[in-house]
Amino acid sequence: MRKHSESGLSRRSLIGSGIGAAVGFASWQSRAATPTKVRVGAINPSSGVLAFPGQACVRGIDVGAKFAKEKFGIELQIIHADTQSRPENGRIAAENLIRQGCTVLIGAWDSGATISALQAAEAAKVPMVVHIASATQVTSQGFTEVFRYYPTSLTIVRKSLMELKSLLSSIKDAPTSAAVMHLNNTMGQSTAASIDQAWKEVEVPLRIAEYIPYDERAKDLSVEVAKAKASGADALVSVTRVNDAIMIIRECTKQGWNPKMIFSPNSNGAQDKAYYDALGKYGDGAILSTLWYNPKAPDAAAILKRFASDYPNDWVDGNSGCAFEAVQIVADAVSRAGSSESAAIHAALKGTDMTPILMSSGKIKFDANGQNTGSDVTILQGQNGKPRVVAPQSVAEAALQYPLVPFNSR
User: Are 316 and 304 in contact (CB under 8 A)?
Assistant: First the structure.
């Protein structure tokens, strides 16, 4: 195992600060007869190229720990670890947290970092609840300590394309072909492969003109956007993080490319506050599929109020929402286990059967591979500087705006 000095991670950047959940929501009653204390390690990319979603996850976990104190009677001592947006640091972070006495982990947002962290969790027999990470490999490599809340890339892409097909059938002058721009990291490659497979299965009535991969750390996407424009496609399908989603829109504006539709399955961008802060009016119109919170959930109003109070300059998104939900999954398992020991928590996680506290999805249950079988997706569109739910119809809060307003007309 590499020493900390070799990894480039300082003790401060890796460990962060332990955050207890002593202050909670007074309006909920404790469910556990005897509150149990447990030390939870939370792994996220709080700095580096993935910092925007990583920090959102940290916020969701911290608010989630406060909620769990009152909802479940569980005192969760959260110890945060920062991967610095480097996949290889997932294992280093996990090993460090386990040495500090963490008996359950949450992480790690990025699929590469998650797989890396799971290697350490597997070796130490410490269960890990994966709040976000979609690459198929997370639950297909035989890990016994993994409990993934987030759907696989194929599941989320298939469901997203079904919703896209439905939307296309409801509009006039629909696009006829699409260029697919995607990250070439673990998540991007997995999602691109899922698009290729699910596109045929769902029979999306669009021809894929070209697949255009790009590096996650790219500082300029002018060549890639020019390729997409030259392909003749009148729609763009993009698999992005926040930074590259911003770069793509800026480059489309600069090059005068105005596709009729921009659709991002399993991506960041149109759900993130940083996206709108950077793009202003140019952020509107893009469509994105993700897991999203259920505003009609019994405790949703109080939870959203707590987020707004603790973080007035941010909003709840899919990142913070999934992180919040992961904490509730842990608290529910500890409550049923009546123990802070890893083996007992692991056994309880295997028997999870709970209604989501905040997120919009079915019952949370884990199959033999540790994959949640009840997850679902929501379709968002940027409208008036914020994401609005446009599908499924059962939860839609706004109508789809189509076609995309040309960037040079805004």
Answer: yes
